[in-house]
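Quarterly update, task 2.4: NAP-bound model.
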Amino acid sequence: MSSIPHRVLILGGTSEARALAAALVADGVPVTSSLAGRVARPRMPEGEVRVGGFGGPDGLATWLTDHDVAAVVDATHPFAERISTSAATGCATAGVPLLRLERPGWRPGPGDDWRWVDSLDDAAALVPALGSRVFLTSGRQGLSAFAGIDDVFFLARCVDPPEPPLPPRIEVLLSRGPYRAEDEAALLREHRIDVLVTKDSGGTLTEGKLTAARELGIPVVMVRRPAHPDVAVVTDVNGARVWVAECLRIRDHAAGA
Ligand code: NAP
């Protein structure tokens, strides 16, 4: 009977998480990806997948012990705050090493007109002074922050239909990236958009809207990332792959393999 933990858990819901799962499967590492279950038809990672919350940090700690987990990579979205906090506490409780895989944030370049804010509420407070036709790409869970604004038109893009409360003047576009800059520019022109609101999600798959906004001279309200727990961080999939290999090597060494 082996008691050496050998499985790697990836907390997922991002393209990086899927890429890491594929890389670890290719390396022959037993991997389970965890999804929150928010999206109706998620893109599925390679390897084993589990869906749904763990029941907070204690539930996660129990799951790690019960499932023989040697290491955890938190590759959740930069704006998924609770699960990252839960991962830090749960891994500490279970004594399992934790790595954060987080893509770099976006940075403005020449020609950009970005206004940084700390929250979607702050974005909502700023929007009416900037324009009257807003492209809102902050995800369906954030739309309620704009519900009280009745003199601005919102074009909101999300993967699944949003739930009320919503702003009274809204058109919802259901779609999933990636998006090309030229298509984003065409969309902004078609809807006569004069403000873009986005979270600083980072990455290349959805940055086309920022290029389009720059070309069209449209101001961008950019929501800053929330703070994350103080854990080891890498910014790319290969860094996480190397970290996992080192964790498994240390574990094998400790077990005398
Ligand atoms: P959140 O507020 O940080 O998490 C809320 C709760 O959902 C957590 O406490 C946890 O429940 C559960 N949960 C979240 N991610 C999980 C995962 N990967 N596996 C198992 N349980 C998970 O998260 P959120 O902002 O609602 O985002 C949910 C998921 O969507 C995340 O996995 C994230 O990677 C992905 N996502 C989020 C955004 C965004 O803008 N927030 C954008 C794209 C993708 P328990 O406490 O019961 O364990």
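Highlight for this quarter: Helices lie at 15-26, 56-66, 81-94, 120-130, 181-190, 208-216, 237-254.
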